[in-house]
């Protein structure tokens, strides 16, 4: 039974295994070990050419870091929603964790079911992340600093399980509630909302 | 500068621009920091509290490491005030761009500027008629920089209302925050431009983000409360504080128009002004 609280987050290590199936949306965790950054361009390249690292139990970090002299200067998360339609194939290949910010679509929520989790890291906290990182390597450097795949070793990066492997989704629950509040605040609105 | 040596002037403008960007990228303005600290005292849920704790720790680390607060160091918008005896020439804009290039290398900043279609990166955060430099008259030669990341910029909105729809402006602003959800890195700041023309409303919304957020009008405060009622919370993970502040800037508009723009700003509201010495 996993019981993560504010004071004692559960410590996870890569490569991830079936321990992630016991996690639930809202659990606080830390993550250590190698992860791989990937944004839009890297996902497109991986889909066409194959994944350049061992995807089994791997963790992909939605991030475009600032790197100088083989050192991570800053490396916070980017908006994960841009990768919504590019995520299925990496999960099929065995990726068990995605780190990002802002959450992902209901399609990805279903793709995570029974096999992977989405871990949210605080947007903008690029120094907090860099202070717990060591640069290990790089793939696709020709895509440029932001879009390349950087292999980075994490030391206890503090994360929250935002989408679990059972359909639990913190972002979706918050969004649903926000829409209800909005409807009550502006009941006659016919605006442009979805 | 009684007989201004232009080379010296341009060098000073470039240096002031680089300095302003460095200050903005590494240190958050006190009014923004104050609002984030207040938010961290108000939140009660473990997830929201931890998110704000990360933000405050990150701000401290940026200063300690002298590194940018966020890896999305943005694309800056530059506002330059020129005193009457300094006439505008294109070389002034070039000097600003040189300052941006220097800052990109020295701080360093992530090269973010690309061709919109080929996506080719210029590598210097300048080129292709960017970044925009707005020239205004002033008493002193001041360089103000507003570097802004894409996460919050991408969920900003503009709507051409009809004049009879003015009562629906607050709803549009709150709805913009609702649709943005966790994507713009809340807690957010909302810059609202009302009036002007289609392009002018967006410029007003951007300029509204230059105003300090420790003081709000009753109208701004009301919109801020309604956004916080949504419960989106820090990073969209749920919580009491979604919005740190709302600032509105207005201008006249066509009798048949009512343009409204909402420029969303992430919690890392980076802005700084540096004076260029003319003596």
Descriptive overview:
The complex is a heterodimer of chains A (194) and B (279). With 194 residues, chain A is of the alpha/beta class. Chain A is 22% helix and 28% strand. Chain A has a five-stranded mixed β-barrel. A two-stranded antiparallel sheet of chain A has the order 4-5. The N terminus of chain A is likely disordered. With 279 residues, chain B is of the alpha/beta class. Chain B has a domain of 115 residues: 60s Ribosomal Protein L30, Chain: A (2-Layer Sandwich), CATH 3.30.1330. In chain B, helix 4 links the parallel strand 1 and strand 2. At the A-B interface, helix 4, strand 9 and helix 5 of A face helix 3 and helix 6 of B.
Summarize it.
The complex is a heterodimer of chains A (194) and B (279). By secondary structure, chain A is α/β, with parallel strands linked by helices.
């Amino acid at each position: 039974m996993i019981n993560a609280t504010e004071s004692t987050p559960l410590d996870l290590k890569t490569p991830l295994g079936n321990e992630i199936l016991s996690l639930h949306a809202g659990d606080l965790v830390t993550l250590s070990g190698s992860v791989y950054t990937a944004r839009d361009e890297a996902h497109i390249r991986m889909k066409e050419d194959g994944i350049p690292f061992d995807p089994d139990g791997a963790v992909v970090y939605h991030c475009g870091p600032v790197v100088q002299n083989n050192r991570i200067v800053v490396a916070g998360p980017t908006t994960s929603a841009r990768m919504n339609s590019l995520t299925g194939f990496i999960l099929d290949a065995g990726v068990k964790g995605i780190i990002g910010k802002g959450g992902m679509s209901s399609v990805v929520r279903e793709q995570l079911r029974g096999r992977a989790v989405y871990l949210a890291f605080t947007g903008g906290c690029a120094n907090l992340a860099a202070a717990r990182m060591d640069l290990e390597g790089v793939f696709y450097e020709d895509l440029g600093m932001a879009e390349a795949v950087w292999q980075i070793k994490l030391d206890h990066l503090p994360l929250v399980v935002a989408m679990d492997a059972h359909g639990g989704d913190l972002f979706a629950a918050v969004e649903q509630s926000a829409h209800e509040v909005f409807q009550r605040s502006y009941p006659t609105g016919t605006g442009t909302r979805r | 500068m009684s007989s201004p040596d232009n080379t010296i002037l341009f060098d000073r403008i470039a240096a002031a621009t680089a300095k302003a960007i460095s200050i903005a990228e590494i240190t958050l303005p006190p009014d923004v920091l104050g609002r984030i600290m207040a938010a961290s005292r108000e939140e009660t849920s473990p997830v929201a509290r931890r998110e704000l704790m990360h933000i405050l720790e990150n701000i401290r680390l940026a200063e300690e490491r002298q590194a940018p607060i966020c890896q999305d160091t943005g694309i800056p918008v530059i506002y330059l005030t020129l005193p009457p005896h300094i006439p505008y020439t294109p070389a002034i804009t070039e000097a600003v761009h040189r300052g941006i290039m220097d800052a990109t290398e020295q701080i360093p900043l992530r090269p973010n500027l690309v061709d919109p279609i080929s996506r080719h990166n210029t590598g210097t955060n300048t080129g292709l008629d960017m970044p925009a430099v707005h020239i205004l008259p002033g008493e002193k030669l001041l360089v103000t920089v507003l570097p802004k990341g894409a996460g919050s910029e991408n969920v900003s909105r503009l709507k051409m209302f009809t004049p009879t729809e003015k009562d629906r402006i607050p709803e549009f602003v709150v709805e913009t925050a609702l649709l943005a959800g966790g994507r713009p890195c809340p807690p957010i700041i909302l810059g609202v431009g009302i009036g002007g023309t289609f392009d002018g409303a967006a410029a007003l919304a951007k300029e509204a983000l230059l105003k300090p957020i420790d003081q709000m009008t009753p109208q701004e405060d009301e919109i801020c409360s309604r956004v916080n009622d949504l419960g989106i919370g820090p990073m969209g993970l749920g919580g009491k504080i979604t919005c740190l502040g709302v600032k509105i800037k207005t201008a006249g508009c066509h009798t048949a128009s009512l343009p409204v723009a909402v420029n969303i700003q992430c919690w890392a509201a980076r802005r700084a002004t540096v004076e260029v010495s003319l003596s």
